[in-house]
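Take a careful look at the protein record below. Let me know whether the structure tokens fit the sequence:
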Amino acid sequence: MAKFVSDLHLHSSYSRATSRELNFDTLAAWAKLKGIQLLASADFTHPAWWRETREKLKESKNAGFYKYGDVNFILGTEISCIYSQGGRSRRIHCLLYFPQVEDVDKFNERLGRLGNLRSDGRPIIGISAKQLLELALEVSEKAVFIPAHAWTPWFSLYGSNSGFDSLTECFGDLSKYIYAIETGLSSDPAMNWRIKELDDRSIVSFSDAHSAPKMGRELTVFDSDFNYNALLKALKKQKIALTVEFFPEEGKYHFTGHRSCGVRHSPAETAKLGIICPQCKKKLTIGVMHRVEELAEKSRKEGYNPKNRPPFKRLVPLLEILAESFGSPVNSSKVVEEYERLTNNFGSEMNVLLKTQLPDLEKVASIPRIGEGIRRVRSGDIVVEPGFDGVYGKVKIWPTAAKGENQVRKPPDNSSQKQAEGQVGLFD
């Protein structure tokens, strides 16, 4: 048994709105920078990317995984199901994984009869999420199927605009094959713990990266042997060591609101003021936090913390910490050079953010503000203006104004304070 770091929701350059640089060279190089041992191969339904995947990935000694250089990959993809059910339009994004190349070949051949797989690395298919799960299980009983970013209003299992109120409503008698759900950037595990039907399912977090620097902004650390069968078992048995999370307020659908009118409401404000925009009188986009309130067990209030759940750690990506520390853009030469300095010295971004003791980090960092920024992020001593209606939230490590009703100062997460201070490595 060992702990390994995974990011299993990625895209290639064949997906829409993604970087042209997303190829296997780039993915493998950034995996090392980030400190990730297992990546999803991404977009295996796209014919051109799948040909490249078959050519470049080699079987690993870790059964069911594949290698490019010394980085391991699992065969995975994301699929968009758009269909009607119960008199409503449903749009559900689904993550899917197989252990063997032959499984993907068979699955792609069958799926290709139902939709155009060439148009997008994340194809749109006109069948239900349940039918997609059924098709995957027909190909392999070892298929892993995870509802993606499960709370996003427009494209998810629990989405307020096009989702469902329960797993059973969506998947019926196949719900037992849903072993995990993905939090998405606008929710964290604690929000998902409030949903009773998720008590016996793993809560996982991945980056959904559309460019390489975004890899690892959310991660799952598994506590299992390093092969496909062990990962499948870990999902079934909730053998998760840790998840690394975005601050969910930074996600672009955390609060209810209306972007064009600049209206942003917390759940309490939404309950008081309703879901109609006070400016244009159209319906607001219901935020993830409000949607969780709608579906949560009444006895499980915000802050509910069961003892049997794995720890999680909320982080701000290192590039963002450096950008605020220097007062420079995230892609400026000053920020990039400091990122390379720190990752070269301490091995990876995850080591810098989670494991390196602050005195050691301060000896290497160019300015003292960097160490102080990482300390504040580790302890949750930051302010976030919550995202809403497609607008990302804004993290401020050094806020310039007093906290207002639309700024949230985050409490510590459920990892220990000693860990939060960087005295003990969270992966140890």
